[in-house]
Design goal:
This protein has two domains: 65 residues; 77 residues, Orthogonal Bundle (Arc Repressor Mutant, subunit A), CATH 1.10.10.10. The relative contact order is 0.13. It has 161 residues and is mainly alpha-helical. It is built from seven helices and no strands. It starts with a helix and ends with a helix.
Length: 161
């Protein structure tokens, strides 16, 4: 389970619109819950899929209890890792692009943000997403298409003067 913790944290960050403190709390709470329920893990799914389902349930439960959509720190505040291969101007431009992308992802509706995070940040397959989210594979593809279009529109709007 400990090997899944970084992936769960990244997923929680994205679900919580990059609020790292709450994401850390939700990740820890979910791992503790999983430890208590380990005897109920039947192996029909991948361990990460099972853990992600617990995390997802906890995040949505927490969101409902606050009676507001999850929101957190400014998504653009997270630093980009330094890449020595980039020139200073290139690094700044790359950092700005990543910040705009994070803002775009944070602005997506929950259902769309979730598939983007699972697919592009966590590398989860379409079939695994369908099982985790309890939706059809066709619906996963549809949500991914809708999310990509929304992100593209958002990024294009931000580039206009």
């Amino acid at each position: 389970m400990a090997l899944c913790a970084p992936r769960l944290f990244r997923a929680a960050c994205a679900m919580l619109r990059f609020d790292e403190e709450t994401a850390s709390d939700m990740t820890q709470e979910s791992l503790l819950e999983a430890c208590r329920a380990l005897d109920r893990f039947d192996g029909r799914s991948d361990l990460y899929t099972w853990l992600y389902a617990i995390l997802r349930r906890n995040v949505f439960r927490q969101s409902r209890s606050r009676r507001t959509a999850p929101s957190g720190a400014d998504p653009a505040r997270n630093d980009v890792r330094d890449d020595k291969a980039l020139r200073p101007g290139d690094a700044m431009e790359q950092e700005e692009k990543i910040a705009r992308l994070r803002v775009g992802i944070a602005g997506l509706p929950d259902a769309l943000r979730e598939v983007v995070v699972l697919r592009y940040l966590e590398g989860v397959s379409g079939e695994e997403m369908a099982a985790t989210l309890r939706i059809s594979h066709a619906r996963v593809r549809s949500r991914l298409t809708e999310a990509r279009q929304a992100l593209l529109m958002t990024l294009q709007e931000e580039e206009r003067p």
